[in-house]
Amino acid sequence: MSEKSEEKCVFCDIVAGKAKAYKVYEDELSLVILDIHPYTKGHCLVLSKRHVAWWHELNEDETASLFKCANVVANRMMKKFDPDFIFLYARGRRIPHTHLFLIPTFSGDVLDRFFNALENFQESPAEMTRLKEPASMEEAAALLKEN
Predict the structure, then answer these.
(1) Does the predicted model carry a pTM greater than 0.85?
(2) Could you tell me which residues are beta bridge partners of residue 104?
(3) Is 108 left (phi over 0), alpha (psi -120 to 50) or beta?
(4) CB-CB neighbours of 104 under 10 Å
(5) From 30, 111, 120, 137, which residue has the greatest number of CB atoms within 10 Å?
(6) For domain 3-106, which CATH number applies: 3.40.50.2000, 3.40.1000.70, 3.30.428.10, 3.40.640.10?
(7) Secondary structure class of 45 (helix, strand, coil)
(8) Residue 16 near residue 31, CB atoms below 8 Å
(9) CA 132 to chain centre
(10) By the 8 A CB rule, do 91 and 54 touch?
(11) pLDDT tens for residues 55-108?
């Protein structure tokens, strides 16, 4: 990424201390902050201090640091918030600066409902295929013909 693009990166500004953030943990190569648009209480972002668009482009030390920081904070989340689990994912399309999402997740919360729906959709093609079977089509047609 060009220097001009990096200058406009909100995460680079946070790392440099030019933008406000709720810092939770850091080491030499990574920084953990609260997400300003949390899904749940304690939702954090683990940032690479160096501007790198995608996590798989980090060097070995940066990768180790990123996941070590994620592990430290995830364990704190488990102790402090007692969630069912900690959801971790890396995306970065909206802000192309390496960051991991760490989200304490509880049964029935927005992410749990989303992933349950996604898993049901993932499993549904077999169910949808059964709808095309002649017996199923005949049953639906018969039901719709009834008054």
Answers:
(1) no
(2) 86
(3) left
(4) 24
(5) 30
(6) 3.30.428.10
(7) strand
(8) no
(9) 36
(10) no
(11) 899 999 999 999 999 999 999 999 999 999 999 998 777 888 999 999 999 998
Tell me the two tokens of residue 94: 């909206």
Q: What is the 3-state secondary structure (H, E, C) of the chain?
A: CCHHHHHCCHHHHHHCCCCCCCEEEECCCEEEEECCCCCCCCCEEEEECCCCCCHHHCCHHHHHHHHHHHHHHHHHHHHHHCCCEEEEEECCCCCCCCEEEEEEECCCCHHHHHHHHHHHHHHHHHHHHHHCCHHHHHHHHHHHHCC
Instruction: Answer whether residue 48 shows pLDDT above 70.
Output: yes
Query: Helix axis angle, 134-145 relative to 110-131, nearest 10°?
Result: 100
CB 105 within 8 A of CB 83: yes
